[in-house]
Amino acid sequence: MASQSANGNSLRPVVFCGPSGSGKSTLLKRLMKEFPEAFAFSVSHTTRKPRPGEENGREYHFVTREEMLKAVEKSDFLEHAEFSGNIYGTSKKAVEAVLQSGKICALDVDIQGVKSLKKSNLNPIYCFIKPPSMEVLEKRLKERGTETPESLQKRLDTAKIELDFEKLEPNAFDYIIVNDDLEQAYAKLREILKSQITKINGL
Which CDD domains does the annotation name (predicted)? Predict the structure, then answer.
């Protein structure tokens, strides 16, 4: 899969990976807000129930487990994984829709997703967003007020696996952003994607 911008330059999708609580979603939302003409989010599918304020087709495509498993069987997904009893996945259709729009496709996936995408022909830019420490990550997750002791522990266990993967597989990601200070982290992300944004704007 590849997309051509108006001036003929190829646009590469951007894959964002990082533990829950790393600030990944905050950085993504800020990027989308500043450059709405350049980026479009690939909306993932999930079997989990919508949270208050979430809309089907915006945050996720909310589907039943049966629907998801059927789609996986038909190879409709570039990647999929199960977390806390729910399945999440990136459909080929969702990514293709963004590519056809002439925008840069942004994907938010976990480590399993990264491994799957590396086997595909997508050829994205891989960015890993990491917290400054596990202590800071735990504090952020607790401050959300949405986690039970059990779900908090699951997220911390998953975060450790993701951070270990990043250390053990240094070539898995093109860029590593430590989100200690949000402004600095966003400035770095903006700089990393500057050439891609410039292609869209034709500057």
Answer: GMPK
Annotated catalytic residue: which of 12, 48, 58, 155?
A: 155
Q: What's the CATH code of the domain at 7?
A: 3.40.50.300
Q: Is 30 a catalytic residue?
A: no
CA 6 to chain centre: 25
β-pair type (125-130, 14-17): parallel
Residue range 38-54, pLDDT digits in tens: 999 888 999 999 989 99
> How many domains, the chain?
1
In a domain, 13, yes or no: yes
CA distances to 41, 77, 116 from 94, rounded to whole Å, are 9, 9, 16
Beta bridge partners of 11: 3
**Is residue 51 annotated as a catalytic residue, yes or no?**
yes
pLDDT tens, 6-33?
A: 333 478 999 999 998 899 989 999 999 9
The active-site residue out of 58, 140, 144, 190 is 144
* Helix, coil or strand: residue 36: coil
Q: Quick one: tokens of 61?
A: 């495509």
68 CA to centre of own chain: 19
**161 exposure class (CB count in 10 Å sphere: 0-12, 13-18, 19+):** middle
Catalytic residue among 12, 51, 65, 190: 51
48 in catalytic set? no
